[in-house]
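tool_call: predict_structure(chain=1)
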Amino acid sequence: MKRMIAAVLVATACASSNSAQAQDTEASAPPLTLDEALTAAGAVSPAVEVSRSGIQAAQAQRSIAGLRPNPSLDAMSENVAGTGIYRGLRSAETTVGVSLPLELGGKRSARVAVANAQLDRASLEAAIVQADLRLRVTQAYNDAAASQRRVVTAREQVGIANEVLRAARVRVAAGRASPLEEQRADVARLNAEGAAERAERSAQVALGNLARLIGRGASSLDTAWFARIEGAGPRLPVRSEGTLTAAAVQADLTTATAQVRLARSQRVPDVTISASARRLAMTNDTAAVVGLSVPLPLFNNGRAVVDLASAQRTQADAQRRLALLDAEQAIASAQGDVANAATTARNATGPTLAAAQEAARIARIGYREGKFGQLDLLEAERTLADTRAAAIDALAAYHDAQARLERLAAPAPVDAKDAR
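tool_result:
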């Protein structure tokens, strides 16, 4: 029995030691940067795998489009199983030959053009998936970094609330203040602890969402990236030309144009030629048979298909112009959001925050020395907490607007092969 208890104690001690070592290792690990998160997400994202499969399917479709029609082997026996001299196989005439369809009107090259356009569109879709994934990971990273900053701020507010509570107790014990001040300070401490608990829970959720995207966990993020704001000054206007959005709608228009060409080529009938050898059983002679088959487009001449493809091309062209207009408006709005968010973040993290911190520091000193009332102190602390929260929100809004602008202005690959 004593040996079992000793073994359990040793196992527990080893487990505790391993857990402590793991925590120490995680705590000492360098912070996860945004570039590392983007790289990790690109390696595990199902969306990237879907886009690659789409490219492979388009490549297979391109190979299929370039194939010629297969010849056919024809065999036919006449004058069999009849009556009289045609009874049995005595008068059978057997014909064996090969038929070869000939595509006319440029059908094969038209199919290849459609397949090439679809392959280019699939390659662009892969680049779009990469840009969308970058936006999603950046936003998740931004949310996680902001939540970690909120946790730090909330913990600092808990420490400040505890200091205020101790100062209130000293004043009440010395008879310089009423017990009501101690109660107010205690309520402020409880509120601060509740806010810190909520902030920690939100941070765990944000880090978990980021870990699901990148396939790995992270205990700390790059705080320098979150606090960084690009320099002020006029920005060069961003145009929609050359972006992924413009390239995608242009690829759709190219595909629709190729479909019109394919529909027109389908109006030209294909010709099937055949060459056979016929054996005459009665004379045991062999004769050549040559055939030509041409379909007659009496009921379906392909005009309706051409009209359909032409209407779809007109629709694709209108959608292209509409998409470019929407992209221009979205880029302009995103640029305004980035500029406004940068201004707000600079003010909130600069002079505004410094003034709130100085006011709170003076209020604490004055309260301890009995020069300020508790309400003045609580108001200064509340203003500081609100200013810190506003600063974090402003930084988060700035990075979110910057990420959205980068997604809208993401350049298209110069060559579709670059996206594959």
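agent: The first strand starts at residue 72 and ends at 78. Proceeding to next step.
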